[in-house]
Amino acid sequence: MKAKKQLLGFAAASLSLTAAFVAGGAPxxxxxxxxxxxxxGNGVMSMVTVVYFCGRCWRFCFCRA
Length: 65
Hints:
Largest sheet: none
Distance between the termini: 31 Å
Helix content: over 70%
Structural class: mainly alpha
């Protein structure tokens, strides 16, 4: 019984992490368009990507709503 709960917990954690990666990468194809419209360079857009992804992970892991 304990092994089954551990397996279920591992599966849930794995799916949660996978979902966070998928959700974090969703807007990335639009960043070239955003960079052109805003006149931002690659460094700025890279930092935006990292901050966005970290925010999504934080929200997905620690906030409930």
